[in-house]
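Input chain follows. Return structure tokens only.
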Amino acid sequence: MGRVSQAQAEENRRRVVETSSRLFREQGTHISVADLMKASGLTHGGFYKQFASKEALIDEATAHAFGQLAQLRDDELDQHAGQRDAAQRALIDTYLSVDHRDSAADGCPAAALAGDMAREPEDREARRVYAEGVGDFAEWLATEDQEGVTRLCTMLGALVLARATKGSPLSEEILTAARAALKTAG
């Protein structure tokens, strides 16, 4: 089998990062390299041509996921003609929805990766990227009346609990209560 072009190698790397970002949010970072590569449509043997280690992929996939979250915030702001409060309310409604609860793979990396990042060594790049992403999200959520960290904790906690109780009436009750609390406080 011949060598792939540089453009194809870059495309393969992008595909692995995007696929891994989704699978890490859906299943956790413990998923095997073989399973990640298979889901990407590539062979396991090609992994080490693209990445120094699984940890390097986790670093890059975490950054990718937080980049997607930042893009979502920017898109909300654009859709609401720069009106930050309207964009925040819309994002909160989307974040605390049944669709988001049920779509971990495409959802918030702060909620999906919290447990995995808590177990990562403090000096890991993924931990730094995670902390920076959480801080940026909290800053974006801040209002004159409420700190962004408080709003983020409410949102993230509600999402995690709603996912953990999915299938019971409590799950939707958690999402509804958190939305109401944020609208009252914000």
